[in-house]
Specification:
50% of the residues lie in helices and 13% in strands. The chain contains 13 helices and 11 strands. The chain is globular.
Amino acid sequence: MLAISLSEHQYLCGRAEKIAKQRIGSISQSYHANKVDQARRRTYEYFRSQEAKLHAADRACRKIGVSCRISALDIAAQIDVYQPCDEPVRYREHRKQSGGTRTTVIFGPVNTARQLMVLDVLKVTASLPEWQYNASGRGLNRAIEQILSTLSAGLTHFVCVDIANCFPSFEQERIEEILPLPREVIRHTVMADNLVFYPGIPNRPSRSSYRTYNANALQPRLLAGLPQGSVCSPYVAGLVLSDIATRLPPTSVLIGYGDDLLVLARAQAEADEIKITLCDALHEHRVGSLRLKHCVSGDFRHTSCEFLGYEISCRDGEPRADISCTNELKVGQALRSAIANDCKNRDMEVPQTRAALDARLRSFHHWPDLESFRAAQIENAKAFVETERMTDAMFIGGIDGRRRAAARRLD
């Protein structure tokens, strides 16, 4: 491990980023020119490139909060997407408000860097369809805007689909036939069956209502299909499900965000037909039989439906997207904690706190009650910080008092 200065590290990472982007551009040109062999060769060169590895390692460090400047060089030396990764991972099981649990794998910097390299190649070799909004340049806001504009056009009937255990249901052999990647890369970097879990740490609850488990409590479904929590899993899921749109009527509108699907139609009969078609298409899917957790249909003029954290409705002819109660609770807790930490650690004033809150609420500009929610969270955060400061003062005062008593006894 070589000690280098910050300026040297920044220079190496900047140079690596430039070369990595050039290699990705050459892969894209080859694929668009239908030069398949050349594209495969350039993909292999990209995965073996030290500059591409360093660029991915630098992004992985920033993504998961690894701040040591020499760690990116160490991580880059351990990256080989063609071989299994021996970096241990953990997983957390979170209890959802609606019932059931969601299990997420927590990856380290080496695994994250490997996944970022694969995602870079997939973005230029296999584009997501237009109805998938979890791609760069689209996002959650664009999906909600599309739903509201479609409701304004009169397509108020809907079918909302939730796939049960979607990521673990994908079969590796079928994924290898779909993705334009080497089989070794898919097997060792994209899929979950080669994950190595931390051994022998007792189960314990954390402050965020998660529980951290170890290899002794490992469930087989975590080693099946795509890992939940991988950087590239949502993109792969979007690619795998891209053929569903071909089974739907041309007059319907499909909005997807990974494995979350919402179809809008003009009439109830068309929505009923779409519901049957979707169930059959998922059951007979080329990647494996996908089981539905629920498939809800209705009319937004008479009922609402939760989708992507919003409660969608169209009462009195006015399309609305209100943040759901579950998501409001989750966002409120995260915002209060984040703002309190900012106030406590950086001694931020109220205007700076509001700016930080606005930045975190940027993705919720469709929320009609955003202003009142913003004001409430600022007040809650200020009260939380004051309580924390009083607690810290009492704790420190108690320590000082015990130290003075001990000193008197020694005298």
